[in-house]
Amino acid sequence: MALDKVVGSAAEAVSGIRDGATLAVGGFGLCGIPSVLIQALLGTGVRDLSVVSNNCGVDGWGLGLLLAQKRIARMTSSYVGENKEFERQYLSGELEVELIPQGTLAERLRAGGAGIPAFYTPAGVGTQVADGGMPWRYASDGSIALASPAKETREFDGREYVLEHGIVTDVALVRASVGDRHGNLVFDLSTRNFNPLVAAAGRITIAEVEHLVEPGEIDPQNVHTPGVFVQHVVALTSEQAADKRIERRTIAKES
Asked: 10-117+166-242 sits in which CATH class?
C-alpha cells in the first residue's frame, strides 16, 4: 500500500463497505464522531450493518441517520438513552442489541486491536451479563426472541471473573483533529474517547481528519494512533470540520 493514504472524498473511502459488514465507530455521544463518513455511508445504500459503538447517535444525526433508514441490523453499545427511534426499533423487534458495560466495551475493542482473543473481568459477574438472559432481540408481541448466552466464568485468588472476547470488525470509522498522509492521527481533548480503540479494532480503518498535515509535522510523541492502523484518510473541508452538534445545550441563568 502506498504511504500516501489520502483519498479524494468520503464517498470514495466508504465505497468498499458492503451489506452485512461489521463496523466499529468512534466517538462518545456526539463528541468525536465521524459524521462525514457516516453521511457518506448513508448515501451508498448499504444495509444490514452490525455496528459497534458506545452509543447510536441521536435522532437525526450521527449513527441515528443510518438507524432511521433501518440500515443497522445489530448494535453493540453501552448507552442508548438519547435515541427514541433506537428504543422503538429495539422494543418492536426490528433491531438486535447487545448492551455491554462501558469499560468492558472499551477493553474488548482494545483487546481486539492488540490481537488478544479474550480476557477475564469482574464487571458483570452475578448479573445477566455473565449469567445470560439479556434480551438481544424482542419479538413483535414483546416476548424475547433472542437472549444473550451465559458466559464462561473462572475464579482467580478467590474472586470470580467473566470471560469477554475481543472485538475485531471489518471496518472502523474514526474522526481525528489532526492527521498526516501516512495515517498518523491526533485526537483533541475529549474527542480522543473511543477513537483510538476503534481505529485499532478495524481490519480496514478510515479516518476523517479536520486538519491534514504533511508527514513529519506531527511530533511522534503526540501521535495517538500510528499510521500502521489506518488505511484511508479523508481530509475534511473547513465547513465539514466545523459542523459539530451538541446533544444538550445548557445555559446558566443570570444571577
From this structure: alpha beta
The beta strand positions in the chain, using DSSP E, are 22-25, 49-52, 72-77, 96-99, 118-121, 135-138, 144-147, 153-156, 159-165, 169-180, 185-186, 202-213, 232-235
Which stretches of the chain drop beneath a pLDDT of 70? 1-2, 255
pLDDT at 253: 81
| Cβ neighbour number for residue 111 with a 10 Å cutoff | 21
**CA 62-206-96 angle, 5° bins:** 50
37: nearest Cα among 251, 232, 191, 189 = 232
Q: What is the pLDDT of residue 80?
A: 85
Note the pLDDT of residue 249: 78
Q: Which amino acid makes up residue 140? A: S
Q: Are 23 and 169 spatial neighbours (Cβ–Cβ below 8 Å)?
A: yes
Could you give the CA distance from residue 109 to residue 168 in angstroms, rounded to a whole number?
A: 7
What are 76's three cell numbers? 453493540
Rounded to whole angstroms, the Cα distance separating 149 from 146 reads 9
pLDDT digit string (tens) for 210-221?
999 999 999 999
Q: Position of cell 473511543?
A: 194
Structure confidence at residue 251 (pLDDT):
81
